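ARCHIVE CARD
CATEGORY: sequence design from structure
SOURCE FIELD: tokenized fold
FIELD CONTENT:
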């Protein structure tokens, strides 16, 4: 698998592989994946490839259903530069070799276990692609909560991680909340700007929201030194509360550095 992961690389700086194991009906089920992608990343349609293989025994229609749902919340929620191509692909192959009782019911424990493992593998691959964006120095994770619909949450999250102004601000470690709010506003999502809260830093596991830089759609006084410190991390997390519904979504991107221009200025076909 190492050789295959290396063979599909283009401007990637490292191979992207992940593997997970779960137990279904007393049988060990393995889910493994590899991907490539660094520039021209903005699914749907970009120069990324992702291959996932598993030995789970599952009904074909259910596998397709799971994978379509997962792709929408993983690979389709990343962006490096907002540019698309015609060459993206994500596929999954299952051979049933684990010999677990065939999964035919969406409500079964096996279905949920497998879906969780498949989501983990593909989400980690998606994040690795975003992290390895051309010239990138930081991975950006934007989480949106309180949206009226899942689609609205996705629109806002993707709009922010695609914003060149915001990406440049992250590279320059500038806590410019206005660039975030601007991207929220032009996302075309249904929202009320006066309800929007923005935080730099968002540790979900520790239930810490980080430094609040905007409240009710307006900038507020905040600890600039602490905000800059957050932006110095290799992973920069942003939390955006829309406070207008129950849906949430997360998107991943990277900062926009001098090296992105250099790489693409020197790249000739």
């Amino acid at each position: 698998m190492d050789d295959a992961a290396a063979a599909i690389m283009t401007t990637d700086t490292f191979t992207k592989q992940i593997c997970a194991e779960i137990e279904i009906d007393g049988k060990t089920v393995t889910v493994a994946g590899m991907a490539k992608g660094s520039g021209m990343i903005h699914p749907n349609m970009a120069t990324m490839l992702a291959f996932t293989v598993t030995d789970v025994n599952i009904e074909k229609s259910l596998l397709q259903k799971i994978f379509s749902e997962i792709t929408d919340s993983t690979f389709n929620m990343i962006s490096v530069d907002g540019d698309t191509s015609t060459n993206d692909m994500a596929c999954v192959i299952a051979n049933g070799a684990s010999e677990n009782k065939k999964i035919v019911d969406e409500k079964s424990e096996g279905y949920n276990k497998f879906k969780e493992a498949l989501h983990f593998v593909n989400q980690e691959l998606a994040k690795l692609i975003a992290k390895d964006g051309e010239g990138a120095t930081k991975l950006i994770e934007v989480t949106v909560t309180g949206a009226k619909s899942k689609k609205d949450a996705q629109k806002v999250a993707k709009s922010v991680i695609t914003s060149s102004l915001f990406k440049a601000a992250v590279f320059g470690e500038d806590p410019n909340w206005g660039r975030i709010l601007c991207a929220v506003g032009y996302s075309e999502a249904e929202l009320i700007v006066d309800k929007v809260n923005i935080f730099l830093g968002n540790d979900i596991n520790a239930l810490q929201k980080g430094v609040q830089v905007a409240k009710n759609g307006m900038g507020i006084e905040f600890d600039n030194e602490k905000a800059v410190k957050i932006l110095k991390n290799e992973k920069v997390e942003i939390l955006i509360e829309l406070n207008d519904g129950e849906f949430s979504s997360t998107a991943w991107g990277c900062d926009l550095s001098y090296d992105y221009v250099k790489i693409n200025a020197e790249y000739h076909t």
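CARD ANNOTATION: The domain at 139-266 is CATH 3.10.20.340 (Ubiquitin-like (UB roll)). Residues 109-131 form the longest helix (23 residues).
SHELF: design records, drawer C
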